Amino acid sequence: MSGAFFDEMYAAGGQCRPHYREFARWLADTPLELLAQRRREADLLFHRAGITFTLYGDEQGTERLIPFDIIPRSIKASEWQVIERGCIQRVQALNMFLADIYHEQRILKAGIIPAEQVLANEGYQVAMRGLGLHRGLYAHIAGVDLVRDGDGSYYVLEDNLRTPSGVSYMLEDRKMMMRLFPELFAAQRIAPIDHYPNLLLDTLRSASPLDNPTVVVLTPGRFNSAYFEHAFLAREMGVELVEGADLFVRDDRVFMRTTCGPQPVDVIYRRLDDAFLDPLTFNPESMLGVPGLIAAYRLGNVVLANAVGTGVADDKSIYPYVGEMIRFYLDEAPILKNVPTWQCRKPAELSHVLANLEHLVVKETQGSGGYGMLVGPASTAAQIEAFRLRLKARPQDYIAQPTLCLSTCPTFVESGIAPRHIDLRPFVLSGSQTRLVPGGLTRVALREGSLVVNSSQGGGTKDTWVVED
Protein backbone atom coordinates (compact mmCIF):
# COMPACT_ATOMS: atom_id res chain seq x y z
CA MET A 1 0.00 0.00 0.00
CA SER A 2 1.16 3.51 -0.78
CA GLY A 3 2.59 5.88 1.82
CA ALA A 4 0.97 9.02 0.40
CA PHE A 5 -2.55 10.36 0.93
CA PHE A 6 -4.97 10.48 -2.01
CA ASP A 7 -6.83 13.80 -2.22
CA GLU A 8 -10.40 13.19 -3.39
CA MET A 9 -10.87 16.69 -4.84
CA TYR A 10 -7.46 17.71 -6.13
CA ALA A 11 -4.96 15.81 -8.26
CA ALA A 12 -1.19 16.22 -7.97
CA GLY A 13 -0.28 19.76 -8.89
CA GLY A 14 -3.46 21.18 -7.38
CA GLN A 15 -5.72 20.57 -10.39
CA CYS A 16 -9.35 19.93 -9.52
CA ARG A 17 -10.61 16.50 -10.49
CA PRO A 18 -13.30 16.66 -13.25
CA HIS A 19 -16.19 15.35 -11.13
CA TYR A 20 -15.52 18.09 -8.54
CA ARG A 21 -15.27 21.02 -10.96
CA GLU A 22 -18.85 22.29 -10.62
CA PHE A 23 -18.60 22.14 -6.85
CA ALA A 24 -15.17 23.81 -6.86
CA ARG A 25 -16.51 26.73 -8.91
CA TRP A 26 -19.40 27.14 -6.48
CA LEU A 27 -17.08 26.90 -3.47
CA ALA A 28 -14.74 29.57 -4.85
CA ASP A 29 -17.69 31.97 -5.16
CA THR A 30 -19.13 31.22 -1.70
CA PRO A 31 -17.92 33.24 1.31
CA LEU A 32 -16.79 31.26 4.34
CA GLU A 33 -19.28 33.26 6.41
CA LEU A 34 -22.14 31.76 4.38
CA LEU A 35 -20.76 28.25 4.85
CA ALA A 36 -20.54 28.86 8.59
CA GLN A 37 -24.12 30.10 8.65
CA ARG A 38 -25.33 27.06 6.72
CA ARG A 39 -23.49 24.75 9.08
CA ARG A 40 -25.19 26.38 12.06
CA GLU A 41 -28.55 25.92 10.32
CA ALA A 42 -27.77 22.26 9.72
CA ASP A 43 -26.84 21.71 13.38
CA LEU A 44 -30.07 23.36 14.51
CA LEU A 45 -32.19 21.28 12.13
CA PHE A 46 -30.48 18.06 13.15
CA HIS A 47 -31.08 18.90 16.82
CA ARG A 48 -34.75 19.62 16.16
CA ALA A 49 -35.17 16.35 14.30
CA GLY A 50 -33.46 14.43 17.12
CA ILE A 51 -30.74 13.09 14.84
CA THR A 52 -28.40 11.90 17.56
CA PHE A 53 -26.50 8.85 18.72
CA THR A 54 -25.79 7.59 22.21
CA LEU A 55 -22.20 7.67 23.40
CA TYR A 56 -21.81 5.05 26.13
CA GLY A 57 -19.77 6.07 29.15
CA ASP A 58 -19.81 9.76 28.28
CA GLU A 59 -19.85 11.93 31.38
CA GLN A 60 -21.26 14.93 29.49
CA GLY A 61 -24.48 13.13 28.67
CA THR A 62 -25.45 10.23 26.46
CA GLU A 63 -27.09 12.05 23.55
CA ARG A 64 -24.70 13.49 20.96
CA LEU A 65 -25.19 15.15 17.61
CA ILE A 66 -23.00 13.53 14.95
CA PRO A 67 -21.05 16.40 13.37
CA PHE A 68 -22.15 17.02 9.79
CA ASP A 69 -19.75 18.48 7.25
CA ILE A 70 -21.26 20.55 4.46
CA ILE A 71 -18.54 19.83 1.91
CA PRO A 72 -19.59 16.61 0.13
CA ARG A 73 -17.47 13.69 -0.92
CA SER A 74 -17.86 13.04 -4.67
CA ILE A 75 -17.28 9.82 -6.59
CA LYS A 76 -17.43 9.70 -10.37
CA ALA A 77 -20.04 7.32 -11.79
CA SER A 78 -17.56 5.02 -13.58
CA GLU A 79 -15.66 4.56 -10.32
CA TRP A 80 -18.87 3.86 -8.45
CA GLN A 81 -19.73 1.06 -10.88
CA VAL A 82 -16.56 -0.78 -9.83
CA ILE A 83 -17.34 -0.24 -6.14
CA GLU A 84 -20.89 -1.48 -6.66
CA ARG A 85 -19.81 -4.64 -8.47
CA GLY A 86 -17.14 -5.30 -5.85
CA CYS A 87 -19.54 -4.92 -2.93
CA ILE A 88 -22.18 -7.14 -4.55
CA GLN A 89 -19.57 -9.81 -5.28
CA ARG A 90 -18.28 -9.70 -1.71
CA VAL A 91 -21.69 -9.91 -0.03
CA GLN A 92 -22.80 -12.72 -2.33
CA ALA A 93 -19.70 -14.72 -1.34
CA LEU A 94 -20.25 -13.99 2.36
CA ASN A 95 -23.86 -15.19 2.13
CA MET A 96 -22.67 -18.38 0.41
CA PHE A 97 -20.06 -18.83 3.13
CA LEU A 98 -22.70 -18.54 5.85
CA ALA A 99 -24.99 -21.02 4.11
CA ASP A 100 -22.05 -23.40 3.72
CA ILE A 101 -20.75 -23.33 7.30
CA TYR A 102 -24.23 -24.04 8.66
CA HIS A 103 -24.74 -26.91 6.21
CA GLU A 104 -22.15 -28.85 4.14
CA GLN A 105 -19.06 -26.95 5.40
CA ARG A 106 -17.30 -27.47 2.06
CA ILE A 107 -14.87 -24.59 2.59
CA LEU A 108 -13.77 -26.07 5.93
CA LYS A 109 -13.35 -29.56 4.48
CA ALA A 110 -11.25 -28.08 1.67
CA GLY A 111 -8.91 -26.60 4.31
CA ILE A 112 -9.28 -23.06 3.00
CA ILE A 113 -10.32 -21.73 6.41
CA PRO A 114 -9.27 -23.53 9.61
CA ALA A 115 -12.38 -25.21 11.02
CA GLU A 116 -11.62 -24.12 14.60
CA GLN A 117 -11.64 -20.46 13.57
CA VAL A 118 -15.24 -20.86 12.44
CA LEU A 119 -16.77 -23.52 14.67
CA ALA A 120 -15.22 -22.17 17.90
CA ASN A 121 -15.99 -18.55 16.99
CA GLU A 122 -18.36 -16.87 19.43
CA GLY A 123 -20.39 -15.60 16.46
CA TYR A 124 -21.06 -19.15 15.24
CA GLN A 125 -24.50 -20.27 16.40
CA VAL A 126 -25.05 -24.01 16.69
CA ALA A 127 -28.81 -23.34 16.68
CA MET A 128 -28.48 -22.46 12.97
CA ARG A 129 -26.96 -25.82 11.92
CA GLY A 130 -29.03 -27.42 9.16
CA LEU A 131 -31.63 -24.64 9.15
CA GLY A 132 -32.86 -23.76 5.66
CA LEU A 133 -33.51 -20.07 5.00
CA HIS A 134 -35.60 -18.54 2.22
CA ARG A 135 -33.31 -17.87 -0.78
CA GLY A 136 -30.41 -19.11 1.37
CA LEU A 137 -29.82 -15.54 2.55
CA TYR A 138 -28.29 -14.70 5.92
CA ALA A 139 -27.14 -11.09 5.54
CA HIS A 140 -30.04 -9.16 4.01
CA ILE A 141 -28.47 -5.82 4.96
CA ALA A 142 -24.69 -5.41 4.89
CA GLY A 143 -22.33 -2.47 5.24
CA VAL A 144 -18.93 -2.72 3.55
CA ASP A 145 -16.33 -0.30 4.92
CA LEU A 146 -13.98 0.98 2.21
CA VAL A 147 -10.83 3.06 2.41
CA ARG A 148 -8.79 4.56 -0.39
CA ASP A 149 -5.04 4.20 -0.56
CA GLY A 150 -2.55 6.74 -1.79
CA ASP A 151 -2.66 5.42 -5.37
CA GLY A 152 -6.45 5.83 -5.49
CA SER A 153 -7.26 2.12 -5.08
CA TYR A 154 -10.15 1.10 -2.85
CA TYR A 155 -9.66 -1.53 -0.14
CA VAL A 156 -12.20 -3.23 2.10
CA LEU A 157 -11.41 -2.45 5.72
CA GLU A 158 -14.16 -4.58 7.24
CA ASP A 159 -17.56 -6.16 6.64
CA ASN A 160 -20.62 -5.40 8.79
CA LEU A 161 -23.19 -8.19 8.66
CA ARG A 162 -24.83 -8.26 12.09
CA THR A 163 -26.72 -5.00 12.52
CA PRO A 164 -24.92 -2.48 10.25
CA SER A 165 -25.83 1.10 11.13
CA GLY A 166 -25.44 4.56 9.66
CA VAL A 167 -27.82 4.51 6.71
CA SER A 168 -30.12 7.05 8.39
CA TYR A 169 -27.26 9.54 8.49
CA MET A 170 -26.61 8.91 4.80
CA LEU A 171 -30.22 9.79 4.01
CA GLU A 172 -30.46 12.76 6.38
CA ASP A 173 -27.18 14.21 5.13
CA ARG A 174 -28.55 14.20 1.59
CA LYS A 175 -31.82 15.84 2.67
CA MET A 176 -29.83 18.53 4.47
CA MET A 177 -27.59 19.28 1.49
CA MET A 178 -30.57 19.54 -0.84
CA ARG A 179 -32.29 21.88 1.57
CA LEU A 180 -29.27 24.13 2.17
CA PHE A 181 -27.71 24.11 -1.30
CA PRO A 182 -30.37 23.30 -3.94
CA GLU A 183 -28.32 25.13 -6.59
CA LEU A 184 -25.61 22.46 -6.39
CA PHE A 185 -28.05 19.74 -7.40
CA ALA A 186 -29.41 21.84 -10.27
CA ALA A 187 -25.91 22.38 -11.69
CA GLN A 188 -24.94 18.70 -12.08
CA ARG A 189 -26.38 15.21 -12.15
CA ILE A 190 -26.06 13.59 -8.74
CA ALA A 191 -27.49 10.08 -8.38
CA PRO A 192 -30.49 9.95 -5.99
CA ILE A 193 -30.55 7.83 -2.82
CA ASP A 194 -33.97 8.69 -1.37
CA HIS A 195 -35.42 5.38 -2.63
CA TYR A 196 -33.36 3.40 -0.08
CA PRO A 197 -36.28 2.89 2.39
CA ASN A 198 -38.39 1.46 -0.46
CA LEU A 199 -35.56 -0.89 -1.45
CA LEU A 200 -35.09 -1.91 2.17
CA LEU A 201 -38.79 -2.70 2.60
CA ASP A 202 -38.79 -4.65 -0.67
CA THR A 203 -35.73 -6.58 0.52
CA LEU A 204 -37.35 -7.43 3.86
CA ARG A 205 -40.60 -8.52 2.23
CA SER A 206 -38.75 -10.68 -0.27
CA ALA A 207 -37.01 -12.42 2.67
CA SER A 208 -40.34 -14.14 3.36
CA PRO A 209 -42.04 -16.72 1.12
CA LEU A 210 -45.39 -15.07 1.89
CA ASP A 211 -47.05 -12.74 -0.62
CA ASN A 212 -47.68 -9.79 1.70
CA PRO A 213 -45.71 -10.34 4.92
CA THR A 214 -46.00 -8.06 7.93
CA VAL A 215 -42.64 -6.42 8.67
CA VAL A 216 -41.53 -4.80 11.94
CA VAL A 217 -38.30 -3.21 13.18
CA LEU A 218 -37.16 -4.63 16.53
CA THR A 219 -35.15 -2.19 18.66
CA PRO A 220 -33.51 -2.67 22.07
CA GLY A 221 -35.08 0.66 23.05
CA ARG A 222 -34.38 4.34 23.19
CA PHE A 223 -31.12 3.99 25.15
CA ASN A 224 -29.46 2.12 22.30
CA SER A 225 -26.80 4.14 20.43
CA ALA A 226 -28.63 3.76 17.10
CA TYR A 227 -32.20 4.23 18.35
CA PHE A 228 -32.72 7.27 16.13
CA GLU A 229 -31.95 5.10 13.12
CA HIS A 230 -34.32 2.33 14.21
CA ALA A 231 -37.20 4.80 14.56
CA PHE A 232 -36.23 6.61 11.35
CA LEU A 233 -36.21 3.46 9.20
CA ALA A 234 -39.48 2.16 10.65
CA ARG A 235 -41.12 5.50 9.91
CA GLU A 236 -39.67 5.74 6.40
CA MET A 237 -40.78 2.20 5.54
CA GLY A 238 -44.21 2.69 7.12
CA VAL A 239 -43.85 -0.29 9.47
CA GLU A 240 -44.10 -0.66 13.24
CA LEU A 241 -41.15 -0.04 15.55
CA VAL A 242 -41.35 -2.59 18.37
CA GLU A 243 -39.45 -3.63 21.46
CA GLY A 244 -39.26 -7.18 22.77
CA ALA A 245 -42.16 -6.58 25.17
CA ASP A 246 -44.40 -5.68 22.20
CA LEU A 247 -44.03 -9.19 20.76
CA PHE A 248 -44.99 -12.63 22.02
CA VAL A 249 -44.98 -16.19 20.72
CA ARG A 250 -48.07 -18.39 20.70
CA ASP A 251 -48.23 -21.81 19.03
CA ASP A 252 -44.80 -21.15 17.50
CA ARG A 253 -46.01 -17.98 15.75
CA VAL A 254 -44.87 -14.45 16.56
CA PHE A 255 -47.50 -11.82 17.30
CA MET A 256 -47.43 -8.10 17.92
CA ARG A 257 -49.60 -6.53 20.61
CA THR A 258 -51.79 -3.80 19.11
CA THR A 259 -54.86 -1.85 20.20
CA CYS A 260 -56.85 -4.07 17.82
CA GLY A 261 -55.55 -7.27 19.35
CA PRO A 262 -52.68 -9.60 18.43
CA GLN A 263 -51.35 -9.25 14.88
CA PRO A 264 -49.12 -11.89 13.25
CA VAL A 265 -45.55 -10.82 12.42
CA ASP A 266 -43.74 -12.41 9.49
CA VAL A 267 -40.44 -10.52 9.13
CA ILE A 268 -38.41 -8.93 11.92
CA TYR A 269 -35.70 -6.45 10.97
CA ARG A 270 -33.85 -6.92 14.23
CA ARG A 271 -31.42 -4.31 15.54
CA LEU A 272 -30.18 -6.21 18.57
CA ASP A 273 -27.50 -8.85 18.85
CA ASP A 274 -28.04 -12.61 18.83
CA ALA A 275 -27.43 -12.99 22.56
CA PHE A 276 -30.45 -10.84 23.46
CA LEU A 277 -33.01 -12.19 20.97
CA ASP A 278 -34.52 -15.02 22.99
CA PRO A 279 -33.85 -15.71 26.69
CA LEU A 280 -34.97 -19.32 26.21
CA THR A 281 -32.17 -19.98 23.68
CA PHE A 282 -29.41 -17.49 24.39
CA ASN A 283 -28.87 -15.16 27.35
CA PRO A 284 -31.48 -16.07 30.00
CA GLU A 285 -31.00 -12.67 31.63
CA SER A 286 -32.08 -10.75 28.50
CA MET A 287 -35.09 -8.50 28.98
CA LEU A 288 -34.86 -7.20 25.38
CA GLY A 289 -35.84 -10.27 23.41
CA VAL A 290 -38.87 -12.49 22.87
CA PRO A 291 -39.19 -15.86 24.65
CA GLY A 292 -39.77 -18.61 22.09
CA LEU A 293 -38.65 -16.51 19.12
CA ILE A 294 -35.91 -18.91 18.01
CA ALA A 295 -38.27 -21.90 18.10
CA ALA A 296 -40.66 -20.03 15.79
CA TYR A 297 -37.71 -19.02 13.63
CA ARG A 298 -36.38 -22.57 13.29
CA LEU A 299 -39.83 -23.73 12.18
CA GLY A 300 -39.85 -21.10 9.42
CA ASN A 301 -42.76 -19.17 10.94
CA VAL A 302 -40.87 -15.87 11.09
CA VAL A 303 -37.88 -14.37 9.26
CA LEU A 304 -35.09 -12.58 11.11
CA ALA A 305 -33.06 -10.08 9.14
CA ASN A 306 -30.22 -10.38 9.46
CA ALA A 307 -30.20 -14.07 10.26
CA VAL A 308 -28.94 -15.41 13.56
CA GLY A 309 -25.28 -16.41 13.35
CA THR A 310 -24.16 -13.91 10.70
CA GLY A 311 -21.62 -12.47 13.16
CA VAL A 312 -19.12 -15.23 12.40
CA ALA A 313 -18.70 -13.81 8.87
CA ASP A 314 -17.81 -10.28 9.94
CA ASP A 315 -15.45 -11.31 12.71
CA LYS A 316 -12.07 -9.76 11.96
CA SER A 317 -10.37 -13.16 12.26
CA ILE A 318 -12.47 -14.36 9.29
CA TYR A 319 -11.96 -11.18 7.24
CA PRO A 320 -8.54 -12.25 5.83
CA TYR A 321 -10.23 -15.19 4.07
CA VAL A 322 -12.95 -13.31 2.15
CA GLY A 323 -10.85 -13.17 -1.02
CA GLU A 324 -10.54 -16.96 -0.88
CA MET A 325 -14.31 -17.24 -0.32
CA ILE A 326 -14.91 -15.28 -3.53
CA ARG A 327 -12.62 -17.60 -5.47
CA PHE A 328 -14.09 -20.73 -3.86
CA TYR A 329 -17.80 -19.98 -4.22
CA LEU A 330 -17.92 -17.71 -7.28
CA ASP A 331 -14.78 -18.80 -9.14
CA GLU A 332 -13.91 -15.13 -9.63
CA ALA A 333 -11.04 -12.85 -8.69
CA PRO A 334 -11.97 -10.33 -5.97
CA ILE A 335 -12.85 -6.94 -7.44
CA LEU A 336 -12.09 -5.17 -4.14
CA LYS A 337 -8.98 -6.17 -2.20
CA ASN A 338 -8.54 -6.61 1.53
CA VAL A 339 -6.14 -4.53 3.55
CA PRO A 340 -3.02 -6.67 4.33
CA THR A 341 -3.71 -8.33 7.67
CA TRP A 342 -1.66 -10.25 10.24
CA GLN A 343 -3.53 -12.81 12.35
CA CYS A 344 -2.07 -12.71 15.83
CA ARG A 345 -3.29 -16.26 16.52
CA LYS A 346 -0.46 -17.40 14.20
CA PRO A 347 2.88 -17.40 16.11
CA ALA A 348 4.99 -16.10 13.20
CA GLU A 349 2.56 -13.27 12.46
CA LEU A 350 2.30 -12.44 16.18
CA SER A 351 6.09 -12.08 16.34
CA HIS A 352 6.00 -9.63 13.45
CA VAL A 353 3.22 -7.61 15.10
CA LEU A 354 4.96 -7.46 18.48
CA ALA A 355 8.15 -6.25 16.80
CA ASN A 356 6.33 -3.50 14.89
CA LEU A 357 3.56 -2.29 17.22
CA GLU A 358 4.54 1.37 16.85
CA HIS A 359 3.81 1.17 13.10
CA LEU A 360 0.61 -0.92 13.08
CA VAL A 361 -3.09 -0.72 13.89
CA VAL A 362 -4.17 -3.61 16.13
CA LYS A 363 -7.88 -4.47 16.50
CA GLU A 364 -9.99 -6.84 18.53
CA THR A 365 -11.51 -9.49 16.27
CA GLN A 366 -14.90 -8.88 17.92
CA GLY A 367 -14.40 -5.12 18.32
CA SER A 368 -16.39 -2.30 16.72
CA GLY A 369 -16.86 1.44 16.87
CA GLY A 370 -13.17 2.20 17.19
CA TYR A 371 -13.02 0.70 20.71
CA GLY A 372 -10.35 -1.71 21.93
CA MET A 373 -7.81 -0.84 19.26
CA LEU A 374 -4.24 0.44 19.14
CA VAL A 375 -3.15 2.97 16.53
CA GLY A 376 0.59 2.53 16.89
CA PRO A 377 1.87 5.79 15.33
CA ALA A 378 -0.58 7.83 17.46
CA SER A 379 0.12 6.03 20.75
CA THR A 380 2.59 6.69 23.54
CA ALA A 381 5.31 4.21 24.50
CA ALA A 382 3.37 3.39 27.67
CA GLN A 383 0.17 2.69 25.71
CA ILE A 384 2.04 0.45 23.30
CA GLU A 385 3.63 -1.54 26.13
CA ALA A 386 0.29 -1.94 27.89
CA PHE A 387 -1.25 -3.20 24.66
CA ARG A 388 1.69 -5.56 24.13
CA LEU A 389 0.78 -7.34 27.38
CA ARG A 390 -2.87 -7.71 26.31
CA LEU A 391 -1.74 -9.05 22.94
CA LYS A 392 0.58 -11.64 24.48
CA ALA A 393 -2.13 -12.78 26.91
CA ARG A 394 -4.83 -13.32 24.25
CA PRO A 395 -3.27 -13.22 20.76
CA GLN A 396 -6.22 -15.05 19.21
CA ASP A 397 -8.44 -12.04 19.95
CA TYR A 398 -6.49 -9.63 17.71
CA ILE A 399 -5.51 -8.89 14.14
CA ALA A 400 -3.11 -6.19 12.94
CA GLN A 401 -2.92 -4.08 9.81
CA PRO A 402 -0.59 -1.42 8.44
CA THR A 403 -1.48 2.15 9.35
CA LEU A 404 -3.72 3.12 6.46
CA CYS A 405 -3.22 6.12 4.22
CA LEU A 406 -6.91 7.06 4.27
CA SER A 407 -7.76 9.49 1.49
CA THR A 408 -8.54 13.08 2.39
CA CYS A 409 -11.38 15.35 1.39
CA PRO A 410 -11.74 19.12 1.95
CA THR A 411 -13.71 19.63 5.14
CA PHE A 412 -15.13 22.77 6.76
CA VAL A 413 -13.50 22.96 10.20
CA GLU A 414 -13.03 25.77 12.72
CA SER A 415 -9.92 27.08 10.98
CA GLY A 416 -11.60 27.10 7.55
CA ILE A 417 -11.41 24.50 4.79
CA ALA A 418 -8.78 21.81 5.36
CA PRO A 419 -8.21 18.17 4.35
CA ARG A 420 -9.48 15.47 6.69
CA HIS A 421 -9.35 11.69 6.40
CA ILE A 422 -12.47 9.76 5.30
CA ASP A 423 -13.83 6.29 4.66
CA LEU A 424 -16.97 5.03 2.94
CA ARG A 425 -19.69 2.56 3.96
CA PRO A 426 -21.97 1.51 1.07
CA PHE A 427 -25.06 -0.47 2.11
CA VAL A 428 -25.80 -3.69 0.26
CA LEU A 429 -29.34 -5.11 0.22
CA SER A 430 -29.76 -8.80 -0.61
CA GLY A 431 -33.22 -10.08 -1.52
CA SER A 432 -34.66 -11.20 -4.84
CA GLN A 433 -31.81 -9.02 -6.17
CA THR A 434 -28.62 -7.65 -4.62
CA ARG A 435 -28.70 -3.86 -4.80
CA LEU A 436 -27.07 -0.68 -3.53
CA VAL A 437 -28.12 2.92 -3.71
CA PRO A 438 -25.37 5.01 -5.33
CA GLY A 439 -23.18 6.40 -2.57
CA GLY A 440 -23.11 5.44 1.07
CA LEU A 441 -22.11 6.91 4.39
CA THR A 442 -18.88 8.90 4.28
CA ARG A 443 -17.36 9.25 7.74
CA VAL A 444 -14.74 11.90 8.38
CA ALA A 445 -12.10 12.18 11.11
CA LEU A 446 -12.52 15.81 12.16
CA ARG A 447 -9.41 16.03 14.30
CA GLU A 448 -6.37 17.07 12.28
CA GLY A 449 -4.20 14.07 11.47
CA SER A 450 -6.65 11.58 13.00
CA LEU A 451 -7.33 8.36 11.08
CA VAL A 452 -10.24 7.23 13.32
CA VAL A 453 -13.54 8.17 11.67
CA ASN A 454 -15.99 6.47 14.08
CA SER A 455 -18.65 8.74 15.56
CA SER A 456 -17.87 7.24 18.98
CA GLN A 457 -14.32 8.62 18.58
CA GLY A 458 -15.30 12.14 17.47
CA GLY A 459 -15.83 11.52 13.76
CA GLY A 460 -18.46 13.21 11.60
CA THR A 461 -20.30 12.49 8.36
CA LYS A 462 -20.53 13.93 4.84
CA ASP A 463 -23.02 13.61 2.02
CA THR A 464 -21.71 11.21 -0.63
CA TRP A 465 -22.34 12.14 -4.26
CA VAL A 466 -22.07 9.84 -7.25
CA VAL A 467 -21.62 12.30 -10.10
CA GLU A 468 -21.86 11.62 -13.83
CA ASP A 469 -18.43 11.58 -15.42
UniProtKB/TrEMBL annotation:
<dbReference type="InterPro" id="IPR025841">
    <property type="entry name" value="CP_ATPgrasp_2"/>
</dbReference>
<dbReference type="Pfam" id="PF14403">
    <property type="entry name" value="CP_ATPgrasp_2"/>
</dbReference>
<dbReference type="InterPro" id="IPR051680">
    <property type="entry name" value="ATP-dep_Glu-Cys_Ligase-2"/>
</dbReference>
<dbReference type="InterPro" id="IPR016450">
    <property type="entry name" value="UCP005522"/>
</dbReference>
<feature type="domain" description="Circularly permuted ATP-grasp type 2">
    <location>
        <begin position="72"/>
        <end position="445"/>
    </location>
</feature>
<protein>
    <submittedName>
        <fullName>Circularly permuted type 2 ATP-grasp protein</fullName>
    </submittedName>
</protein>
